[in-house]
Amino acid sequence: MQFSSRLLEQAVDEFGRLPGVGKKTALRLVLHLLKQPDADVSRFTGSINLLKENIRYCKNCFNIADQDVCEICVSPKRDHETICVVEDTRDVMAIENTNQYQGVYHVLGGLISPMDGVGPSDLKIEALVDRLRNGNIKEVILALSATMEGDTTIFYLSRKLKEFDVQVSTIARGIAFGGELEYVDELTLGRSIATRVPYEVKG
Ligand SMILES: [Zn+2]
């Protein structure tokens, strides 16, 4: 791609770094922004700066939040004895959209993946164990993707949770989860949570 301006090229490069955005789309977005009123562009860049500077992670469940503790964790309407363990915030959003789940969450921040150098200590696993140690938790639902990383993480977690007197369940594993979760229809996802099954450690 030949650019008539260095500034234009720089902006296109930055947009092109976003997931799912190729060079052509990046150029289209940048040219679109150039045509917008200054106030609109300021609002756009301002919202990104504000997000980055002020966003917090709930100190309880590690979901993205505006406060120290997220709205789900402080809600008296939620069932605080049931924890649904997910990979990231997108999964929380997808499950919330089903309106089928009344418990609370725990966001791991990824999955165990030796190939990518992600081990258990890189995830919020100890924090989950602490929650079980300190709280009155009756059930932990492992809602992780049906991938090798998801399986590895579920296996690791189920071993870790063995010492506690909690029901460990998994959701129907046909579901594409984590990243692809947003493409799963709400009915299917909602049903798979409602019909979750106890997890048995094999071997
Ligand atoms: Zn929370």
From TrEMBL:
Signal peptide: none annotated. GO terms for molecular function: DNA binding; zinc ion binding. A zinc finger (C4-type) spans 58-73. It comes from the Bacteria. Residues 81-176 form the Toprim domain. The keyword Metal-binding applies. Gene3D superfamilies: 3.30.60.80, 3.40.1360.10, 6.10.250.240, RecR Domain 1. The keyword Metal-binding applies. Keywords: DNA damage, DNA recombination, DNA repair, Metal-binding, Zinc, Zinc-finger. One of its GO terms (biological process) is DNA recombination. May play a role in DNA repair. It seems to be involved in an RecBC-independent recombinational process of DNA repair. It may act with RecF and RecO. HAMAP family: RecR. Belongs to the RecR family. This is Recombination protein RecR.
